[in-house]
Write a structure and sequence with these properties.
Layout: H1 9-23, H2 36-52, H3 55-62, E1 71-76, E2 79-84, H4 87-113, E3 118-123, E4 141-143, H5 144-149, E5 174-177
Antiparallel strand pairs: 1-2, 3-4, 3-5
Helix pairs in contact: 1-2, 1-4, 2-3, 3-4
Bound molecules: zinc ion (ZN).
Residues 132, 134, 167-168, 172, 174 line the site of zinc ion.
Length: 181
Amino acid sequence: MMHFEELDEDTRRWMLDEFDAEQNQTHHFEPTELNSSGLAVFPDLMRQAIERGSIASLAASLSDASYWKPTRTYYRQGKHITQRIDSIIAAQELAHSEFTTWYTRGVARKLMEEGMTRCQVYRADPAVPPKCECTSLEENTVSLDEIYNGHRAKYFPVANPEAFSIPSSPFCHHTIRRLKV
Ligand SMILES: [Zn+2]
């Protein structure tokens, strides 16, 4: 389970502030595997999770099969592969990546508002073997500007796999913490 060290009222307020700012942009990120029903409820479900929920509560609220497209298609080794979407698994994956994305963005904003400029990268779920590229940054100090501006930088509005971003992939279990003084 992800351990978000500062998931308090103050952090949730910044997460929500940042989420609403993104939603208010005309062209904003929308999960591609949700259908129109799913996209219609997603902002409210995300808001509820940010205000008082968790990855688990968000995953539960998203697991309704009627929110999801029947299949996903991806490209591998020169072939298009079509795969059935399991709404339970897809909801868990989306909840993990979105909640971690908003926690990271919200904490970065909170620490910047406190006047800090640096933070520390940590693995928030020690039970998961690290596979993502930010594994080499564990316990390192990084700039809050880079974290804040790295929000969705690898995939939105355009694909940019070289960009610096934490979380670095949908399966990343890293986030940031305040520097201990
Ligand atoms: Zn990671």
